[in-house]
Amino acid sequence: MLASDMTAQTGFHDGELAVQERAGVRAQVARLGDAMLATPDLNGGMASFLAARDFAVITARDPDGRLWTSPLFSTPGFLQARDRELRVRALPGPGDPLGGVVAGQPVGMLAIEFSTRRRVRVNGILTHVGETGLQLSVDQAYGNCPKYIHSRLLEHVDSAPQPVERSSALSAEHQLLIANADTFFLGTIHPTRGADASHRGGPPGFVHVDGDRLWWPDYPGNNMFNSFGNLAVDPSAALLFIDFDTGATLHVSGKAAVEWVTPSDNDGGTGRRVSLAIESVVWGARIGLHGGPPTT
């Protein structure tokens, strides 16, 4: 989708409103949406937060139209925000599925500070891709609550290039990483309201492998349902898992759906979970970080 196809709107879109209605929280979050999804101002405290970060993720489509979520890792200062523009002095690494990302499309970004459990979502149009970085025209920018972010310290380390494997299914090694993961990043998209990147966290093993599908519970959150609202309209979804011991990345792209089930302890009592049909997997591209186990 090109920038010219985007609709300049604020507030919740049709998918978000539908999911909020089914969950019974629409009235509760109405004023929250007005405040959080208003015209963004990237100056002041938000600009300072972004400038201090060394890690972010981006959701976009590759040249073939497939949705992916990829890491961006550099030294603090690589995210420079002003007014409604965000300059990113980093690119997806060698072998990353978004290595050939092109401008003129909606993208979602999430900047996160694991040590303090803070995050900011920045969504807009990718207006330029250069040799050393990206430029975004921002439509939305807002903070999220710290729920389910596992506090850990990221360290920059030297990382030699590794062979990248592409497949349509998970190997035993991939499944082991997922079984031990307490964190992943989720990318979704809406046909006219753009892309979104979000954080998902839980106890190790909260993401389940079931044949050629993955599923995970929806724990209680802020009830805005940005990701669920996108999936209600467009099932495209992209997951990013990171092995914080080695810096290896596991990208999974496919089609996802929200399932409404009988509430149980397995879904945090919400009665909601997401099931994703795996279509494409990219494994092995490394980023120069070491995260270690969650801190207490």
Unreliable sequence segments: 1-8
| Helix-strand string | HHHEEEEEEEEEHEEEEHEEEE
Number of helices: 5
User: What is the percent of helical residues?
Assistant: 10-25%
Gyration radius, to the nearest Å?
18 Å
Structural class: alpha+beta
Instruction: Label the overall shape.
Output: globular
How far is the N terminus from the C terminus?
A: 43 Å
What is this structure's SSE topology?
Blueprint: H1 14-23, H2 26-36, H3 45-51, E1 55-61, E2 67-73, E3 79-82, E4 85-88, E5 105-113, E6 118-129, E7 134-144, E8 155-156, E9 165-167, H4 172-180, E10 183-190, E11 194-201, E12 208-210, E13 213-217, H5 226-233, E14 236-242, E15 248-260, E16 272-286, E17 289-290
Antiparallel strand pairs: 1-2, 1-5, 3-4, 4-7, 5-6, 6-7, 8-17, 9-16, 10-11, 10-14, 12-13, 13-16, 14-15, 15-16
Helix pairs in contact: 1-5
How would you characterize the overall build of this protein?
By secondary structure, the chain is of the alpha+beta class. It is 15% helix and 41% strand. It contains five helices and 17 strands. The protein has helices at residues 14-23, 26-36, 45-51, 172-180, 226-233; strands at residues 55-61, 67-73, 79-82, 85-88, 105-113, 118-129, 134-144, 155-156, 165-167, 183-190, 194-201, 208-210, 213-217, 236-242, 248-260, 272-286, 289-290. Strands 9, 10, 11, 12, 13, 14, 15 and 16 form an eight-stranded antiparallel β-sheet that branches. Strands 2-1-5-6-7-4-3 form a seven-stranded antiparallel β-sheet. The model is unreliable at 1-8 (pLDDT under 50).
